Amino acid sequence: MAGVIGGILLALGEAWGVAALLGGAGLVLWHARPVLLALVLLGGAAGWASAHAVLTRPNALTPWFGAQVTVQGEWDGQFLTLRDPPARVTLAPKPTQGPGQLRVSGRLLAPEGRRTPGGFDQAAWFRAQGGLLSVTPGGALVGARVREFQPQGGLRGWFRRGLTTGLTERQGALMQAIELGDRGDISREQFSEGEAVRDAFARAGLAHLMALSGQNVAILTGALILLLTRLGAAPAWRFGLPVLLLGPYLLLVQSSASITRAVLMGGAVLLALALGRGRPDPLGVVALAALACLLLYPLWLTDVGFQLSFLAVLALTQSERVAGRLPERWPRWLRLGLAATLLAETGTLPVIAGTFGQVPLVGLPANLLAGAIMALLVPLGFLAGLLGPLALPLNVVNGVLADALLLVARTFGQAPVLTWGQVGMGGVLAYGAAVLAGWLWLLGRVRAPAALGTWLACLLLTTLPGRLHPAREVVFLDVGQGDSTLIRLPHLTVLVDAGGSVGSDYDVGAHTVVPTLRALGVRKLDVLVATHADTDHIEGAASVLRQLPVGEVWIGQRKTDDPVLTAVLLAAQERRVPVREVRRGDQVSSDGATLTVLWPAGTAWSTEDNDNSVALRLESRGWRAAFLGDLADLTEEWLGAGPLDLLKAAHHGSRHSTGTALLAQTTPADTVISVGRNTYGHPHPDVLTRLAQAHSQAWRTDQLGTIRWPLP
């Protein structure tokens, strides 16, 4: 297995592949069986060949990138699978219709890489979904409009109707998520404005319940084995029949790394029991499942779901040891439940912290309660799916259980979470040292005080870098055709706007801005500036207010008839965040820097929102920058911004902003333009020409992604 991992990493150009191969060789030497070295090398060659085949496969959609197209295929809630050409694409926005045959039109675009710290790397995720037996997703269809729809038929259609018949939309969405792994409908559900159901599950440490995994396989096969045992079936039937049903089950549900791993491992264990060979070695079964997964889908190695699934299972192999360390007077089921939950959370900690930027603090009690509900809901839900439309009486019970699970998620989802930045090499080493200390304690090699001291020391070491070298920078977030700028000082953090997506259901604040802030280690904002009532600037601010502590909100004009600004003000009111109407001359100072409001004057308001934008100037130890919102060139001349080192161009490079008079007055050496794909002609050629004539270097987020600018 180490050889296969090493080969895949080398095919990806990762030097860590050498370390994996050396690790495999080290295991061979440890067991003094040199003949196994050939298997390590064979695994390396197989892993490299498999990954190379997937990586070099041509993309059939490349000739149509950028074109307006109409395509037809099978929609499974995640990908649209086309027949001609043979390809898979994602749809944005996702159709409100369920899985089935779709005819849809939109603009076909190539997948994008990661453009913000902690952001979603669509291109890498696409690559990870392809394998030797399936086509790698090749593009994204944006502005997708459904022209024709035919609901899913066959066994899946029957099963889906059984899961949802007689249930509310939210209950049905939850049942499809936990039984089929289809999270399309549940992603649209909200407990209240700004309180998404999936976010509540994540904050409560229950996100794994909506990703099919070993829990589903264990509950379903366990229920079937119990039934067969009660019927007096012989061991060959008792364990053999579940093995035969695992294959059709995998075809029924939405394929993923976690459920494939669970089916392979469950099948190996059940087959061994059916043949009378007893339970196989846990590590051997884990390695066997990983080997089968990665040889067929080599880039699953980079998939978060694969990593979480296998790390959790590896940690769970120590459940008996940890349970043995707990007081014997406690019931065994409680000790095993506590041990399993603690181990799963500990084993997956670096991936969860580094990927999602937060660690749930209430995962232990939430999982104990949710686990009891799932033990009933999973088999009853599966039975309802088999009954199809006849499941109405059974779904009365399933509806109650689904509501109970939603209540657990909502209740524990209100608890605070531990925010986390990106996990670097130091964090990985500290985590490894802490795990080693815990492992030696379980083996009885070190005493509890020594292990606890090691954990505390590792925790302290991971907090030191940020305290010894606090950030001083301006970060221009890539939020597409929108605006969001972060000003970071040791004791002052200001977010100017939070992006937005005009005519789309994509929440830029929740899915781009907040993850970026968490990845950067931003745990709170002292000031959130909503420059003016434009969707592309402040729509995401409501989600930022709901997900991060904010000291106060700055606004210019308090419009009462703008729905986007009203949503921001309502979110501030919900979180009891004071709102301040700033005027020219208002300022805040910290750590040798001063942030001053240049506009609005507040004496009169324009009928154009852009002209009422809040404009700011930042001065830090002689260095000066200005952030102008969407101000037009006529207003720019009244600012008196003075000489600048850096200019944040107004209105995404519109030809009506960043005028000649402003550039002559400010003479900025550098100009940042926040812009994305658009039909407005931003940045306009006239603006780029004016910047060139003023000898100001233009930096564009559509070309460079997020731009980080150090402050003196």
Automatic annotation (TrEMBL):
Record-level GO cellular component terms: plasma membrane
UniProt KW keywords: Cell membrane, Membrane, Transmembrane, Transmembrane helix
Protein name: DNA internalization-related competence protein ComEC/Rec2
Main location class: membrane
Compartment annotation: Cell membrane
SUPFAM superfamilies found in the cross-reference section: Metallo-hydrolase/oxidoreductase
Native source species: Deinococcus xianganensis
Domain Metallo-beta-lactamase: 481-677
TM annotation in the entry: 36-55, 217-237, 249-275, 282-300, 368-387, 394-413, 419-443, 450-468
Membrane topology: Multi-pass membrane protein
Annotated GO biological process: establishment of competence for transformation
